[in-house]
Amino acid sequence: MDARLRSDINVTPLVDIVLVLLIVFITLVPTLPTALATVLPRPGPGREGPVLRITLLPGGGLELDGRSASLAELPALVRASSGPVRLRVDPSLPFHRATEVLDLVKGVRPEARLSVVAAGEGI
């Protein structure tokens, strides 16, 4: 009787785990949010003009400095301002809605300082 022990390592479970992790990472990476080129607001008096406050409301509406406006009016008002732009976004809105407004502002005034603020319940 041959009483030799086999010392082979079974790597099948290891390969299974690696493949599952690979599939998880491949499916999750495209859904990760991308970073936006924004500048956080700095404390203290600004040397520029007054802050242009744009608010994206929960229903999808738009407010400029507290008054209701449309997306078509936004380029002219951004062009007329010289100060930083602060965008308040309701967290319930889809991400593409905020990037649409940010792209429009950057297209009109590429030098503008942008800040994005997630607005709470009481916009």
- Class by helix and strand content? alpha/beta
Major sheet? 5 strands, mixed
Q: Pick out the low-confidence regions.
A: none
Distance between the termini: 83 Å
**Rg, please?**
25 Å
Which outline best applies? elongated
Number of strands: 5
Per DSSP, the total helix count is 3
Helix content: 25-40%
Strand order of the largest sheet: 3-2-1-4-5
Estimated share of beta-strand residues: 15-25%
- Nearest-integer average pLDDT: 81
* Helix-strand pattern: HEEEHEHE
Keywords summarizing the entry:
3 helices; five-stranded mixed beta sheet; 31% helix; elongated; 123 residues; alpha/beta
What does this structure look like?
This protein is α/β, with parallel strands linked by helices and 123 residues long. It has a domain of 67 residues. The chain is built from three helices and five strands, in the order H-E-E-E-H-E-H-E. Strands 3-2-1-4-5 form a five-stranded mixed beta sheet, covered by helices on one side. A hairpin with a 2-residue loop joins strand 2 and strand 3. It is elongated, with a radius of gyration of 25 Å. The chain starts with 11 loop residues before the first helix and ends in a 5-residue tail after the last strand. The relative contact order is 0.17. The mean pLDDT is 81.
